[in-house]
Amino acid sequence: MTEDQFRQQLQEKGYGEAKIREFEPNQDKEMHTHDLSAMALVMRGEFILALESESTSYAPGEWCELIAGTVHTERTGPDGATVLLAYK
Question: In whole angstroms, what is the distance from residue 56 CA to residue 75 CA?
């Protein structure tokens, strides 16, 4: 997915303005939740969204959506990750 396509989806789904977020290499934080839903487009690196029951790895050009209140953690590969992130 291109950045323009991603931004169009954000608008259609009612998300706010997307911002770039840098994740450190080999990140592996504690499981947690957020009060907001999030959509993320991977721009660089490997971004892994780990839920209680499964983990999914995303490469550049791939995106994911996380519903508010979902228990999860964000992980990254050895090069970290750059993600375009928006909330609602």
Answer: 10
Distance CA 49, CA 68 (A): 14
pLDDT value of residue 77: 94
- pLDDT tens digit string along 11-44? 999 999 999 999 999 999 899 999 999 999 999 9
DSSP state of 10: H
Q: Is 70 exposed, middle or buried (0-12, 13-18, 19+ CB in 10 A)?
A: middle
CATH of the domain at 16: 2.60.120.10
Number of domains in the chain: 1
Which residues on neighbouring strands pair with residue 84, listed in sequence order? 20, 41
Question: Which range marks the domain in which residue 81 is found?
Answer: 3-87
